[in-house]
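SEQUENCE-TO-STRUCTURE ENTRY
===========================

Backbone structure tokens: a row of integers, each naming the local backbone shape at its residue.

Task: work out the structure tokens from the sequence, keeping to the layout shown below.
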Amino acid sequence: MAAHPLEPVPQPVAFFLADYAAVENGKVYTSGAFWNRMLVVEFPSVQQLSVVVVFDVPFSAHGHSFTFTIRFEDADAQQLGPRINGQMDVGQTGDGRLGDESVIPFVARVEGLVLPEPGDFSAVLEIDGGIIARWPFRAATAQ
């Protein structure tokens, strides 16, 4: 069941790019994280990177299902590269108490993101079709 527009939805407490990231035992491990500029030898350039999202889910959102999408776009809001689609069926943890929020880490490895030319780009996070976060980054030619 999708959330009603007036019901609380998960919010990102973190949304960023990393060279590498993984989730293990509910923790996010990263290497080369929080960058917003990459130097590239030549364009077009094919990139591999990780996208990290940590969702904060209010107690009132437990029992609901949410869809999310992570996509990339250029400075003109034209989509490029792969899209990552997911769904969260949010429930309370086994040791949770009434009223507890949940923190849900998510990592996706992106292979084959083609940056056609130097410029400004963004990773975009949507929940249930609405944009809730954006991580801008710039690709420039290495000197």
